[in-house]
Amino acid sequence: MKLRVAVTLLCATAALFAIAGADSPYRFFDWNVTFGDIYPLGVRQTGILINGQFPGPDIHSVTNDNLIINVHNSLNEPFLISWNGIQQRRNSYEDGVYGTTCPIPPGKNFTYILQVKDQIGSFFYFPSLAFHKAAGGFGGIRILSRPRIPVPFPDPAGDYTVLIGDWYKSNHTNLKARLDRGRKLPFPDGILINGRGPGGASFNVEQGKTYRLRISNVGLENSLNLRIQNHRLTLVEVEGTHTLQTTYSSIDLHVGQSCSVLFTADQPAKDYYIAVSTRFTSRVLTSTAILRYSNSAGPVSGPPPGGPVIQIDWSLNQARSIRKNLTASGPRPNPQGSYHYGLINTTRTIILANSAGQVKGKQRYAVNSVSFVPADTPLKLADYFKIGGVYHVGSISDSPRGGKIYLDTSVMQADYRAFVEVVFQNNENIVQSWHLDGYNFFVVGMDGGQWTPASRRGYNLRDAVSRCTTQVYPKSWTAVYVALDNVGMWNLRSEFWARQYLGQQFYLRV
Questions:
Q1: What number of other Cβ atoms are within 10 A of residue 401's Cβ?
Q2: Closest listed residue to residue 190, CA positions, set 167, 174, 172
Q3: Which pLDDT belongs to residue 453?
Q4: How far apart are alpha carbons 230 and 9 in whole angstroms?
Q5: pTM (2 d.p.)
């Protein structure tokens, strides 16, 4: 009881400081989280609704805005929302994952106080506890540039959120129970586009005008490819970074990633398919939405456009072509290229290897052989109140040591203002997707095989894209640079949600 009171006082004090110390505008949201019936793939399921909506409402904001989001938990179990890509500057208490934030009890509420400090771009939120993400409760976040900050393309005629992701017909409780029994999940049943199955979502356009799509892969495990029949996509932003404006016929988006593309409605007036399909899977799932011209002369015709299926080189080459626009402004007026990350000496190299195996006859996943198990007390609170026995720093090594998978509440110590090289080594046969809360990092290199110090000769030290989620291809590695300028306890995790749930994550204590 004393700890609970102390935590309440701490959160209230932090809220007062956040309100008293900020001069930027405030945006207020009041959300009621409930269970409700949904039918995304034609069968009744129990979904998580926010104010009766599936998916949840979009959050519209501007750089430096303060977001006051009062979440009422009307479920019959604890609940948390995390804000994928929102950096929570020096404020990991608001991050909304189990290691930093106390779950909201049933029938209670919690007010998140966020500031989108020095950020722009396209992101999303999602429920982080249990296996709630498989039931919905997710939605888009957009952060617009301030009026006086130049944007490297004209204002589009429309700006749409597009949430794509693989989906199961089974309720999230059944999927969670399967994982708790130590079993793997089956292949998903379909793909949703804005919460709807094939042909269920539509987007209206006017001929000759240009539109922006903010696309997020909010699914559970699969990389997805998106394309629009007879239209080209120009990439302009990735997770808060303006990119070189490269045009593609289709774009890969790995689980947990977000981006923005522009397209022009420059085709004969009719309806066209927007197609989304799984990547790197032996069985290909495909879903469609409709792009509808205002003066459409007819419905969609022919089959949906095909896309790449198992070609890793195609995806790798596209990933390498995504570069930062050095002359464009970001959240501030100075050019994005004014930060010369390639001239900074790294102070530490961390190598992280994912693995799969069994512990006591149950399926587990690990980072450097450690499979994370949550503690009863959020790690950030244990850290703040100096509660012993909850975790110990150094419970995960900063390079693979080999050996069998074992269970621990893994926390890695890192120094504030260190400039760190992190290498994700994937020795498995599937694509991995890694996310770091609280930060963006520079994706300086990716290639097949084992990473060695000689791999640094191929790094992009000039215009690597800065983002918060990166893929690692099968039997491959990806290297990132990150400036540890955000004090807190930050979750570094697999975005493959069953792997995250069964241990492929840890916390970085900066």
A1: 10
A2: 167
A3: 98
A4: 57
A5: 0.95
